[in-house]
Design a protein that fits this description.
Distance between the termini of chain B: 31 Å
Order of helices and strands of chain B: EHEEEHHEHEHEEEEHEEEHHEEEHEEHEE
Oligomer: heterodimer
Largest sheet of chain A: none
Helix content of chain B: 10-25%
Number of strands of chain B: 20
Order of helices and strands of chain A: HHHHHHHH
Strand content of chain A: under 5%
Largest interface: A-B, 36 and 32 residues
Radius of gyration of chain B: 22 Å
Radius of gyration of chain A: 19 Å
Number of helices of chain A: 8
Strand content of chain B: 15-25%
Distance between the termini of chain A: 31 Å
Shape of chain B: globular
Largest sheet of chain B: 7 strands, mixed
Structural class of chain B: alpha+beta
Helix content of chain A: 40-55%
Number of strands of chain A: 0
Number of helices of chain B: 10
Chain lengths: 190, 551
Amino acid sequence: MTRRFFLRVSSATLLAAPLFPPLPVLAGTSWRFLNETESATVVALCERIIPADADPGATWAGVVQFIDRKLAGYYHRYQQLYRLGLRGIHQSSLALYNKSFVELLDVQQDELLHKLEANQAPGDIWKQVSAAAFFDRLVDHTMQGFYGGPRHGGNRDAVSWHMLNLPTAPVRSRRPLTAPWSPNPNVPSV
Amino acid sequence: MSLKHVNVVVIGSGAGGGVVAKELSEAGLDVVLLERGRWITPDQDRKDDLRNQRTTVLGPSCGPDEEKEPRVFVFPDGREQVVWPADGNYNNNAACVGGGTVSYGAMAWRYMAQDFRMKSIYGVPAGSTLDDWPITYDDLEPFYEKAEIEIGVSGDVEPNPFKAPRRRPLPMPPLPDSHETQILKPAAQRLGWHPFHIPMLRNTVPYNGRPGCMRCRWCCGFSCECDAKNGTQNTVIRTALASGHCELRTHCIVAEIILDAKGRAKAVDYFDGGNRRQTQTADLVVVSGGAIESARLLLNSRSALFPQGLGNRFDWVGRNLQGHAYSGAFGLFDHDVYDDLGPGAEIAICDFNHGNPGLTGGMLLANEFCRLPYQVANMAPPGTPRWGKAHKDYMRTWFRRSMVIMGPSQEMPVFDSRVQADPKVKDAWGIPVARLSGMDHPHNLELCKFASDKAELWLKEAGAIQVTRRQKTQSWLSGGQHQAGTCRMGNDPKTSVVDKHCKLHDVDNVFVADASVHVTNGGFNPVLTIMANAYRTADYIKRSWKTGGLA
């Protein structure tokens, strides 16, 4: 299996403007739960959790799509946690650096996340929701969206499985393997 | 319009219920098999690594319903929480035709002879209700053999000198040695141990009209897309349905067992797929819902004769809930040990099931089923950062260079580890839910430490450069997929629920055929023992049957 060459995106390019520039992976996305600002922040957060290097990171893999889709669906019970947590991130970022999270340098973002993890991030939102609990959930969701199967919206093109040198599951039929051929009414004939 | 009377209602189509339904319907009795879940056919397998019976972050794939069937979990400090199937504290197994046998890893162990005589051999640890079974291994042996042949077991147990005596070899050969086996087998032998191929309820060659294993890496927790993994749904239940004497009704939630004035069961009340309450009359009832649901059903079946629940005169229904405490170790190697072919678990030792100085019982140890990427993301050794480039480096470096050895410690049963019917919380049909409370026995933690000690030794001998123990260190209620013990077998009605034929002491026509009846649960996955015991119970019923009921 040959490695594909992935465009390395430098963080400086990423953070040139206050609004997050649309990457190919985000073009045409209609968010189901997150608003534009929230989605940009989630993209930046996940990229620190699984950054791009020689292999793609969370942004390229579309982890934010996984999170957004699940928050509108199976993970609706985490909606409030994300709403508050992302506001908390904004508060902490302003308190520490006087900028929003997406405007920070990598090292600043990492510093903030370490504080979050240690439950020492500034901001009164963190009295309503535990910073460490939010970060913990975010890390787990990022791992799911990066290393889990692509059907849920993340792990675009099974990029993490290629990274681990794994063959992807074959495309297979839905009919029993021992069934004799018969016309499938669901498949339009070419 | 009332339902036509039948000879037998079997409640639950898992490892036990499927076997009993087939045995009795083949003998000509009319059987209704009630199952709360649905049929899962091979072409429905989803291979969803985030939604299956092993990784439930997006829910369990093989039931039960996530919005209709809660339970209540009581924490050690007394706090109660309503829990749902994806929560660990729900202690789920599965709910579908075939039950856990659709998605299990399919290890097919016979218990050892000593597992039936734990009290006589070891004495009773303080605080435990450890006891002997009222039957011996020899009583069960012919039925173990029957299960191995009819349901289909592969492997090679000849090199295991500790196994209980057997008359015939396994009907199917083992898989070829995997990459892990090629490393772990000689390592175990160098340590003076006796490794062998795990017996598995999995076709390795075409058998019973279905193909051999396709060697995918998505086995344990998933239904099998090529139908090579053997469960009751693709073996005995198919036979039962083909007999013409068995009707399977899915999406049926049993509410209670109804008694007549003489104290015999006369009917089973359930909610059908359209949520209509139905009454199915029968001569005989077999309860096979699994240790938690079977106990719950008996406790919810109250009457003037049994105000505390059916067969529960002495408050032993729901008691002694046990499972298996898994412990072992995770090893990293300086070379690839990865194998493209599954199912992963293949090589085991039984050197430490019994005779461990200072310990009561023990456990088998074996390598683990294949670990998918998201699972490995959560297995980094302590000290590894959980995020960032360092975690990505861990995945890239070690995903193909890791092995896991684990074993199910035989648990010491505890009276207050129990299932009750919750006084307040009800499911979507208005039936009181299962309430789980209690703690496992402290000795279990000593066994877990021992398991991790041996697993660590094995991995180091195999060449692991770093080993992380995966050791249970906190006492906690145990049940889960190996749940057992809640309707234990015994000769004394004051300290057991069913007799040695698995018939309720107090009710002549109600049997329990699942792991509820296990007095102890071995240091082994329990499913083959459940199946064997179900064959034995059905055999007793067949021999005792006269028209209209038991002799």
